[in-house]
């Protein structure tokens, strides 16, 4: 079943029992985690082609974070029971799951490369360029807060504010 979510709408919440898996058809989602001390950390961005939650592709587990649409997005909702039954009946499906996880690992490696390259302004431009490829060049600050941008490029919110004022986004 396909569903459409608009900017700010929640796909799944931290602690949800994982009744469904989701195939991202279009759009982008940010995934945040609320820690016991009250800090909210942006730890992932989901993009078209992914099936999530990643940690539940082989076996069920409660959702680790909250997924929020960054732009209007389309998602295929997959009942978890049907997913796991198909996996049980078709062991070859494990290879397709491994390929999905490999792609996400490569994305994460790219994000780490972006965190370790050059100056903060360069990291900000790399993030903007990547997001532009999915968002029709929507302004970065309409997609993410300055705090979230800072988490993704490894700087404090104040530094993001300064970079944006200097024309970095």
UniProtKB/TrEMBL annotation:
ATP-binding found in the keyword field: no
SUPFAM superfamilies assigned to the protein according to its UniProt record, in alphabetical order: cAMP-binding domain-like
Claim: Methyltransferase is one of the keywords in the record: no
CDD domains, alphabetized: CAP_ED
UniProt cross-references to Pfam families, sorted A to Z: cNMP_binding
Domain Cyclic nucleotide-binding residues, every copy: 1-76
Keywords: Activator
Name of the protein: Crp/Fnr family transcriptional regulator
Organism, as annotated: Paenibacillus apiarius
């Amino acid at each position: 079943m396909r569903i459409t979510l608009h900017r700010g709408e929640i796909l799944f919440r931290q602690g949800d029992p994982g009744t469904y898996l989701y195939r991202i058809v279009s759009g982008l989602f940010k995934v945040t985690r609320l820690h016991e001390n009250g800090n909210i950390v942006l730890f992932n961005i989901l993009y078209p082609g992914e099936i999530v939650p990643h940690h539940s592709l082989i076996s069920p587990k409660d959702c680790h974070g909250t997924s929020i649409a960054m732009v209007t997005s389309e998602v295929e909702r997959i009942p978890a029971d049907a997913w796991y039954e198909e996996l049980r009946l078709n062991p070859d499906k494990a290879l397709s799951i491994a390929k999905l996880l490999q792609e996400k690992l490569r994305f994460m490696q790219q994000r780490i490369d972006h965190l370790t390259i050059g100056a903060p302004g360069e990291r900000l431009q790399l993030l903007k360029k990547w997001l532009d490829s999915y968002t029709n060049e929507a302004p970065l600050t309409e997609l993410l807060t300055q705090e979230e941008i800072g988490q993704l490029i490894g700087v404090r919110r104040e530094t993001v504010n300064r970079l944006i004022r200097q024309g970095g986004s």
